Amino acid sequence: MRFGVNYTPSQGWFHHWLDFDLDAVRADLDSVAALGLDHIRVFPLWPYFQPDRALIRPRAVEHLVHLVDAAAERGLDVNVDGLQGHLSSFDFLPAWTRTWHRRNLFTDPEVLDGQAAYLHTLAAALADRPGFLGMTLGNEVNQFAAGPHPDPDRATADQIDAWLERMLAACEKGAPGKPHLHAGYDATWYQDDMPFTPAQAARRGALTAVHSWVFNGTAQRHGRASVATEHHAAYLIELSKAWAGDPHRPVWLQEVGAPAPLVPAEHAAAFAEATVANALDCPDLWGITWWCSHDVSRDLADFPELEYGLGLLTNDRRPKDLARVLSRAARGHTYAPAPRTTALTVPADPAARSRCAPGGDVFEAFFRLTADGARPTTVLDTRATDRDHLTARALREVVTPDRVLRTPRGGTRS
Fold first, then answer.
1. Which of 126, 148, 215, 344 is most exposed by smallest CB count within 10 Å?
2. Closest by CA position to 231, among listed 191, 266, 189, 277
3. Is the same domain home to 189 and 306?
């Protein structure tokens, strides 16, 4: 089990790549390592690193290598996101893909060539560095492929699958044998027309990544301290397992945070404690990586209000109560969850994913079971009678959402 944090530099946010200060980075990493965490996830901004399709800036790549080395000196392993992409409500895409040069991010042959070259370059530069974990293709790149993005790069699921295969291959070629993966926001699991599918998330790459944010309707519908809100991360971990080919495929809770005002600052530590405890009750969890390390400076304008206070540490590197919760968990957790033996059926049809979203019958049934102490996981409806599959996952009971929601609270399902 790994405990880490998504690294947000205390000086200049991710714009720090423009005037990279290794001493400031080292001070940030000292404050992270002091919490007892063991890894970070870092975000080179794509247009800063590859401002022209044929120009991947050597100095920028050198700065990234210096950051990874500085982390290793402090006992911190590093996962690197490549195609940034989207961060904290802002899009960072190179000019050679937008406006007058508008080309589809997922289907245009020249864009694909540029992306593959960029990912290969980063992976190759880091392949032999101590502590380099591997590449994530990009941060929530799926948000570019469909609404509600205001200018989506439309693609079919087959085109996205081809894109994933090529980009993961570029990472593997650059850094063979590392656990490379891809990651999307929860529309992968919840949005009917999202071309990034649950099957791709659970089968492509070395790990399944889930990003858990309760501002997606969960906290609004159920409340700050509800079963659904405090178990939302665990739900996504277990939901992902329905599509996995490997019955014990590792799942990485790659992003989870305490967003105000839905989770007020004074309740952030309690939310984190509950979220972490519930995630640790999920078998096959690779790790938990909190969003984020340091607050965004109030000197920077135009961020949504919630983004300024998500850090474990303040902008001047002081730990919050939230940080102490993660530190205690990292230093003192015991990870030995029992198998989850009750499975809730979920639709295999990706056009029915909204049933798994807040308000959907799968979502509501899962938390009904959770409230009743059942510790549910999920299984595709097409696998619900596959004895070999159920046995491989130690599943003893399969229930349907309609049956759960018809059963009186506390009543038997048998």
1. 148
2. 277
3. yes
Kindly state the average pLDDT of the residues 323-343: 95
Task: Kindly state whether residues 192 and 73 are assigned to the same domain.
Answer: yes
- Yes or no: say if 68 and 129 are a contact pair by the CB < 8 Å rule: yes
Mean pLDDT over residues 347-367, rounded? 98
Residue 394 in tokens = 């130690």
pLDDT digits (tens, 9 = 90+) for 67-105: 999 999 999 999 999 999 899 999 999 999 999 999 999
Among 282, 309, 332, give the residue marking a domain's end.
Answer: 332
Residues 82 and 138: their CA atoms lie apart, in Å, by: 5
> To the nearest 5 percent, what fractions of the chain are helix, strand and coil?
45, 15, 40
Q: Is residue 45 part of a domain?
A: yes
pLDDT bracket for residue 341 (50, 70, 90): very high
Taken in order 291, 123, 199, 288, the sign of the CA dihedral is negative
**End-to-end alpha-carbon separation of the chain, Å?**
35
Our measurement of the distance from residue 196's CA atom to the centroid of its chain's CA atoms, rounded to an integer in Å, reads 14
Q: What is the H or E stretch that residue 47 is in?
A: helix 46-49
- Give the amino acid at 161: D
For tokens 């048998």, name the residue: 414
Which has the closest alpha carbon to 9: 297, 330, 321, 324? 297
**Where does a domain end: 307, 332, 357?**
332
Please count the structural domains in the chain: 2
> How many other C-beta atoms can be found within 10 angstroms of the C-beta atom of residue 100?
6
